[in-house]
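Ticket opened by: R.M.
Priority: normal
Category: complex prediction / small molecule

The reporter submitted a protein together with uridine-diphosphate-N-acetylglucosamine and asked that the result be attached to this ticket for the collaborator who will pick it up next week. Submitted input follows.
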Amino acid sequence: MKKIAVVVGARPQFIKLAPLVEVLSDKVDLLLVHTGQHYDFEMSDIFFDQLNLPKIDYHLGVGSAGQSTQTGKMMVGLEEVFRKESPDMVVVIGDTNSTLAGTLAAAQNFIPLTHIEAGLRSKNNHMPEQINRIVADRLSDILCCPTEGSVSNLKAEGQTSGIFLTGDILYDLVARINPSDEFTDSILKKYDLAKGEYIFMTTHRAENVDNPDYLKSLVLGLKKIKQKIFLPLHPRTEKNLKRSQLYETITDLPGIQISKPIGIVESLALTKSSLGVITDSGGLQREAAYFGKRAYILRDETEWQELSQYGAVICIDSNLDKKSLAWDSAVVPSEYFKSASKNIADAIFSMA
Ligand code: UD1
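Result attached by the on-call engineer:
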């Protein structure tokens, strides 16, 4: 049996691990490596519990640090694991520092590499995620592209081999979890929210929340929103709000309900029942589209061009200054949400 090491470390990767494990675990010797990039219960263990994920084989416990320090520490740990275990392939997911470290450690140890969520691009090289994606794509042997646009991006960059249009693995997870009405009602009750009467909001992108001007503008923008807003706070956002002395201001705003980061099943239930979404998350905009909810994106661009073309995601400024945010439903053709995990397994087996 071939040995495949999957490197994860951040919240969005744990989520995508669930459908991946399902298609790979019977067929390969699966080695799970957690870098420790995310470590709080709400940022890591909650997903393993909720999604019933298998036990991690190696936990590197790297924790938070500057981009290069964090990536370097992960690489040291990964190299040790790869030398000890000699996997036949390494799989990395998405665009975090854990993705970058897994990529570089695999490439330097001459281990074939698969990148899930390949080919996504923004025009912003000041986003760490953009740097991470470009490196991961350049060094991968198997490129699992979620969208036609991501295939085109790779081709435009001169990539000629290893490209597979697999679909977006996030939708395998969303379809599997799709919360029942009963469960959704219990979550609405827990957070004291009424169906269709609140906006689900998140913001955590470093290029946004590390900038005090963005936070100030957002607070002013939020004052203009009439509907109730449910806002689970990423630890980076909470720290920056406190540093900018805006934490009390935001928590005191009438109509804003702040919570700790929430698990994936709660997040899907609250997306499904919301009026719509305001976010800078790559995952939440796609989940909103699945449930027919409009997502306003707190960025100048989105990597999910198809969703933008369908009108399901719309970019807005942090001052939320669109004359009126329209909350009509977003209609994306159902074939956009097709299952990806089997295609990803086939792509991996074409080489492993
Ligand atoms: C990372 C990813 C981002 C992804 C996001 C999902 C990179 C470059 N960015 O950003 O693409 O959308 O994860 O959440 O990899 N912290 C805690 N507890 C934790 C983890 C982090 O308090 O469990 C705090 C620390 O102060 C840390 C900060 O959050 O410095 C940022 O964490 P980090 O892992 O550097 O990046 P994210 O902002 O989470």
